[in-house]
Design goal:
137 residues, globular
Length: 137
């Protein structure tokens, strides 16, 4: 298990032990656990991700902390959009849909206002950071 996987698993374990809440640097942050399928491997994966609740579902942000490439989970959602999320103590089947610019931009601006680190991520990369809407199936 890589260091990143160990770090993610620690967050997921804390999330599950505390009814969907985590502490430390993520205290009070809206977080969900994204269950997805590897695009190439077909293996199940889990990632803790910050989200923004919208009228249509849960928006997640493929920021990768401003890296020049999208996170692996983003590519997995493109290949296998029907996934599940854990929000609080509930597991919800969802379908992932990448938002076009007209839908994306207002959600992205709200995220940057609520969590200024996302504005920093945007400055670190030349790519447009994708916003993925997870809609209940």
């Amino acid at each position: 298990m890589t260091d990143a996987n160990k770090w993610n698993q620690k967050i997921i374990d804390e999330f599950r032990a505390n009814g969907g809440r985590v502490g430390g640097q993520f205290e009070g942050v809206p977080m969900l656990v994204l269950h997805h399928i590897g695009a190439k491997s077909g293996s199940p994966r889990e990632n803790p991700v910050m989200y923004q609740e919208t009228a249509d579902g849960w928006a997640v942000f493929a920021s990768a902390a401003g890296a020049d490439t999208n996170p692996a989970w983003y590519h997995n959602l493109l290949a296998h959009p029907d996934v599940e999320i854990e929000v609080g103590t509930e597991t919800i089947p969802v379908r992932a849909r990448v938002l076009g610019r007209d839908e994306r931009d207002p959600v992205w601006e709200t995220q940057k206002q609520r969590f200024p680190a996302f504005a920093e991520y945007e400055k670190r990369t030349s790519r447009v950071i994708p916003v993925v809407l997870l809609e209940r199936r």
